[in-house]
Amino acid sequence: MVAVRLPTAHGAFRAVGYLDRRTGVEQVALVRGDVAGEKVLTRIHSECLTGDAFGSMHCECGEQLAAALRAIADEGRGILVYLQGHEGRGIGLLAKLRAMKLQEDDGLDTVEANIALGLPVDAREYRAAAGILQDLGARSVRLLSNNPRKGEALERYGLDVAERVPLLVPPGAENIRYLRAKRERLDHDLPHLDGAPGPS
Ligand SMILES: Nc1nc2c(ncn2[C@@H]2O[C@H](COP(=O)(O)OP(=O)(O)OP(=O)(O)O)[C@@H](O)[C@H]2O)c(=O)[nH]1
């Protein structure tokens, strides 16, 4: 474990790095304030190179990352765990690009594209995230997520999810199909899509 002050566009965080000896994957958490305790505002963010680093509008990952850091900064206390190995909901970067191509060229949705590639729709697991939160002393979390299954997955590793806090990004022409597929096929709680314009 290594911890260092990290100044960001959202103010300074403590970056805490870990090596997951089970998987060999390096992980990092950004921490603001005293997080030992209850109901810590927490984002478990799945790696998305295209959205987080390149600002891709296919998905809303990059905007969620910024919004989560803003929310934690505003609260003055919280944790963002950035999960490497989660790229493409766990299928990896190249497979995700293939899946995006099937959506772009053939009109498949994000679920159909993974299935067409013979890959799981969602292969992510959250053991590392739960371990990091426990190491940081968070006894229960308010989870920034629209995905009900994420909280359930964390609870399976013994973490108390006190509440799920919506992390809604306004839909746009480029991400509306992805967002609708998440709502309709993956049960994400996205009430703000009601009446949103754009292709169905
Ligand atoms: N397979 C696949 N993965 C994608 C696609 N677009 C984004 N992703 C990945 O999806 C992951 C994020 O998962 P989402 O289903 O968007 O959201 P979530 O993390 O389950 O839910 P939230 O907590 O509400 O953000 C990231 O790892 C992205 O790399 C896509 O078209 N296909």
Automatic annotation (TrEMBL):
Matching Gene3D superfamilies: GTP cyclohydrolase II
Residues holding Zn(2+): C48, C59, C61
Record: residues binding GTP: R43, I44, H45, S46, E47, Q64, E87, G88, R89, T110, S145, K150
Superkingdom, natural source: Bacteria
Cofactor(s) required for function per UniProt: Zn(2+)
Enzyme class, broadest EC rank: hydrolase
Keyword Cytoplasm: no
CDD domains: GTP_cyclohydro2 (cd00641)
UniProt-listed InterPro entries: GTP_cyclohydro_II (IPR032677), RibA (IPR000926), RibA-like_sf (IPR036144)
Segments traversing the membrane: none
UniProt keyword annotations, A-Z: GTP-binding, Hydrolase, Metal-binding, Nucleotide-binding, Riboflavin biosynthesis, Zinc
HAMAP family assigned to the protein according to its UniProt record, in alphabetical order: RibA (MF_00179)
Name the record gives this protein: GTP cyclohydrolase-2
Organism name: Streptomyces albospinus
Gene giving rise to this polypeptide: ribA
